[in-house]
Prior knowledge:
By secondary structure, the protein is mostly helical. It is built from seven helices and two strands.
Amino acid sequence: xxxxxxxxxxxxxxxxxxxxxxxxxxxxxxxxxxxxxxxxxxxxxxxxxxxxxxxxxxxxxxxxxxxxxxxxxxxxxxxxxxxxxxxxxxxxxxxxxxxxxxx
Length: 103
């Protein structure tokens, strides 16, 4: 199975953001999205392995031309995103101290 972590994150439900201030997410979206794309890769592997697939990291184009149906991809992306710890995401983005200034 070919996967592109940045595509997966961009097209997932991005559920970890539900646990962080919306103003914080808006103000630091680029850094958070970059961190999420880094952190989601092992989670994608985990979810795909649970479905019996091995993962090869590729490009957005590789994902677009994959024979796997879109619904399955979206389901895997949402499952992987749901496994991403919001605190780890903020910390990986280097924003833990800044987050404390948001209510």
